[in-house]
């Protein structure tokens, strides 16, 4: 008999519920993890595999979102700007940024830029804050 975790787990047979039906594998592995049974390292692999989307719809949606974000006039965006912009747009579309936060941030950035232009040479050590609070 083999001693590797996969062979041992496979030899255990199918796990059935009280009605004789196969259990939901994702729920079963989550329960095993909560009980502290990692099955020799198989737990994390099983959770990774079973929690992958069954289709590529999410991936395709992400690519379409990126295509919509980058117009022909914006094709020279740096990867950093693209990543930041798509992240903010995604969070905004999904209600993760409170209403009015982006507008307030934009106004604050304009005001900081105006102060910077007025006081050129003064306060060279001032840092510009570029953070947006995500809820």
Describe this structure in words.
- The structure is a single chain.
- The chain folds into 2 domains: 5-50, no CATH class; 57-118, no CATH class.
- It has 135 residues and is mainly α.
- It has helices at residues 5-11, 25-34, 42-50, 57-69, 79-93, 101-118.
- It has 6 helices and no strands.
- 1% of the residues are buried.
- The N and C termini lie far apart (53 Å).
- The model has no long low-confidence stretch (mean pLDDT 81).
- Helix 2 (25-34) packs antiparallel against helix 3 (42-50).
- It comes from Puccinia striiformis f. sp. tritici PST-78.
- InterPro entries: HATC_C_dom (IPR008906), RNaseH-like_sf (IPR012337).
The total beta strand count reads 0
N- and C-termini, Cα separation: 53 Å
Structural class of the helix and strand makeup? mainly alpha
Largest sheet: none
List the helices and strands and how they pair.
Layout: H1 5-11, H2 25-34, H3 42-50, H4 57-69, H5 79-93, H6 101-118
Helix pairs in contact: 2-3
Entry keywords:
6 helices, 135 residues, 2 domains, mainly alpha
Brief summary of the model shown:
The chain has helices at 5-11, 25-34, 42-50, 57-69, 79-93, 101-118. By secondary structure, it is mostly helical.
